[in-house]
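User: Show me sequence and structure for the first protein, then do the same for the second.

Assistant: Starting with the first protein.
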Amino acid sequence: MTICQHPAPFCRQKPALPQPIAPARQQGLTLVELMVAMAISLLITLAAVAALIVSRQGFSALDASSELRDNGRFAADLLQRLGGQTGYLSAEYVIEEARLFGQPVKVSGEDPEPSVMGVNNAKRIAGTDFDWGKSATSDFGSSDLLVFRFLPSVEFLDGSGNPQSGMINCAGEFIDYIPTDKNDRAISVLYVAKGTNDPEPALYCARGRADSVAAGQPLIHGVENFQVLYGVDRVTPNAAPTVVPVTPELPSVDAKDDAVPDRYLRADQMTVSGDPVGTYANWRRVRSIRIGMVLRGPVGSTPDRSAQTFYPFGKAKASSTGTEGSAFASANDPGTIFSPTPDGRLRQVVTFTIHLRNDQKHGL
């Protein structure tokens, strides 16, 4: 259309302006775009899940590691305290023991069992009376059995008038009875076992007085290997000790006895075949106790499922053959070389030495 206010000859036609083209509306995503978006989303999700799993495993391993350390410290503290009490004589009987100092280890015709004893690769079977024959192969790791005895001394009464001694048994219970005689000793038995309905191994505690010991109760869960070596002063494996007379007043005091352990032996090396007196004499020469344990955490506490070997007492040097008294890993003591089934459990070795405070050699 031409619009002009002038006469026709003077009018010029104005060109029409081009009309803008409307953009096409988005109707959806193409299949390729959708697949790319889904792939990117899946990658992000997988990365987030992987990070969450790794983080959770880290927290589980940290919790398991903390629990293992706590259990190890608790076991060490408890056994150190029990070892410090072992062989203690109540003041009521010290005079009698002092009078018999140096005499053969017999009191009124009796030869009481030593304050420290043990069994290699064994556990205790519950019974009314404690009997060394009531032992069987340990459930886990060829673990050993350890016994502490001491005579409680009731030194004071609490606010309710109950006797207190400040001494404890392996369950952490305070000893509150007054001994009736020199043989009425408190006894604690430690060994590894598993419950009837609980497949998890634990360090068990059976306690009592004299030789009457109650059924054991789990003390620390997760202990699957418990090894014991005894630091002895001048003991030849499986042989009775020799005594060098010094004076008529003290005929059995050995001049060479310095009360310092010169080797570490297994429990079966303390036994003298057919000679219970010699066996007891060997046990009374124990001056220290070396404990080695392997503790394990719950399933899934570590992602590592590779085969591992643990040495509760440490590994001997390449030149060593693990001979008697070496206190290292030895093929003669299977529990000192422990290879558990790979099961995704975090494990930790705990090793410590108990130095016995009281004299184990004379009388009780």
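Switching to the second protein now.
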Amino acid sequence: MIINVGGNETFVATGGQNFDPKKPTVVFVHGSGLDHRCWALQSRWFAFHGYSVFAPDFPGHSLSKGEPLLSIEEMGEWLVEALVVAGVESIHLVGHSMGFLIVLESASLLGDRLKTITAVASAAAIPVNEELILTAETSASDAADMMLRWGFGSHTQLGSSAVPGMQPIAIGRQIMSDNPLAIDLKACRDYSAGKSRAESLSYPANVILADEDKMTPCKFGLELASSLNANVSTIKNSGHMLPMESPKRTLDAIKSFVIKNSN
């Protein structure tokens, strides 16, 4: 669906079902340089099992208009505004990597509309290599190649795919090459409030980690989980791009937690 946020047309994937703001809504927040497509399996399952799905492309990403936002704080405020525009009443926030930093910024602004928060392959702080940022400023596709060599686990690097006929590395490259990757990476680099934000929250929290994650290693995810007093699960033989690399296992870890905390 298309909604107007801040004067710009914003694309929101709804999992293949009409959006109903009165249903409990699972909000999927994409990571750096990505878009709604990274949540394809997860969003479709929730949309066909009693939930509404709200998976936006952030401004300047893929199908959404507007200038890219320059900071995690701005992105958090934008997400809250988008949810207000859509009239969402009951919210489960799910964020991948940078997306969970945005969740941390949004959470305190949503009050009792927010029911749960879930981090997927994330941490309270995400340092970014300056060489990667410099590469992204010159060529998003070259930077995407660098990230994807590190972002997927060993099985996927050898050609394994959870979806027959589709190669997640190729899909990731296609998405990231056309999006403002450098801006997102700099926003991650500059964000320093994650730990304090996490410690201030008391919502039911879920942290999903990947044992081969080289971009936000498990030890940092466990530190985040400690700050949130969160449920923790670890997906084996997978890297940082969990929603695309291990879509079914990531869905299972999300849905069991959301369903448990929906009543």
